[in-house]
Amino acid sequence: MPDLPGPDLPVSDLSGSDSSGLQAFLADASVDEAVFELRPDYRALLLAVDGITPGPSDESSEQLLQAAESAARYATASTPVDQLPHIAAWRDAYRAFGAKPQRTRNSVEALTRRAVGPGLPRVNRLTDLYNAISMLHQLPLGGEDLSRYQGPPKLVRATGQESFDTATEGEPVIEHPLPGEVVWCDNAGVTCRRWNWRQARRTQLTDETTSALFILDVLDPMTDEQLTIAADELVDHLKQLGPEVAVVRRLLANPRD
Questions:
Q1: 128, CA 20 to 30 Å: which among 66, 138, 184, 199?
Q2: For 248, which DSSP code?
Q3: In what order do the strands lie in the sheet with 141-145?
Q4: Within a 10 A sphere around the Cβ of 207, how many other Cβ atoms?
């Protein structure tokens, strides 16, 4: 799907009862051609959500996490984590831009190892939800506070000059991605390094988040049908997090396909 033009929408204008603001925000989202040159099979499904009622982990999110942990244990019972098809595809993608997947693991691999080891984290019901869907469908899935965005989400290969707001030993620091690294960013800087490895502090979900952006990263062998099933399940659960939750989705795919 070719990228669509759209206005640079102030995120404060978004409304849970009106999806037009969410649509305008996603209209400017983009994936740079250099990323598709790296992986022509890449697709990103973006979900913009508003009207969420924040809340702590609850019985529903606990049940989802337990199901996700069981699914991860079942998947790895006879297959090593790094050989699971979707994880292996992401390890290849990381190697393609110079990352070492044994040192910087894609998000679905990192979560899978936690799920079969100490267990998935319990954070809040919004974070628990997207972590569980990521595990149940074996795809990288990031969630960020949409109200903290400055301009639209863009996936690019970094110049190395972009800023990345993170923490080292509990102290805030600004880092910079390596040249050629695949990063999600907005007009203010990097929001996620190495495709889906580590998210910035600036846009991270909190216990007060009421509007969110979810990014589902996809490579073959995951099919569009499998992606749709995962997204539909995520949306079904999101709509239970408030009486006026609005969700808009947009697929970004190689326009040459």
A1: 184
A2: E
A3: 141-145, 212-218, 43-50, 246-253
A4: 12
Backbone angles phi, psi at 18, to 5 degrees: -140, 115
CB 219 within 8 A of CB 169: no
Report the interhelical angle of 107-116 vs 125-137 (nearest 10°).
100
* Cα-trace Rg, the chain: 17
Q: What is the 3-state secondary structure (H, E, C) of 115-150?
A: HHCCCCCCCCHHHHHHHHHHHHHCCCEEEEEHHHCC
The length of the chain is 257
* Per-residue pLDDT tens over the stretch 130-167: 999 999 999 999 999 999 999 999 999 999 999 999 99
Contact status, residue 57 vs residue 28, Cβ threshold 8 Å = no
Model pTM score: 0.92
* Relative orientation angle of helices 59-75 and 125-137, to the nearest 10 degrees: 20
Amino acid at 65: L
Tokens 């790895």 sit on residue: 76
Asked whether the beta carbons of 32 and 156 are under 8 A apart, the reply is yes
Residue 3 tokens, joined:
């990228």
Q: Residue 2: is its pLDDT beyond 60?
A: no
Q: Which residue has the tokens 């019985």?
A: 59
First to last CA, the chain: 8
Reduced to 3 states, what is the DSSP secondary structure of residue 12? helix
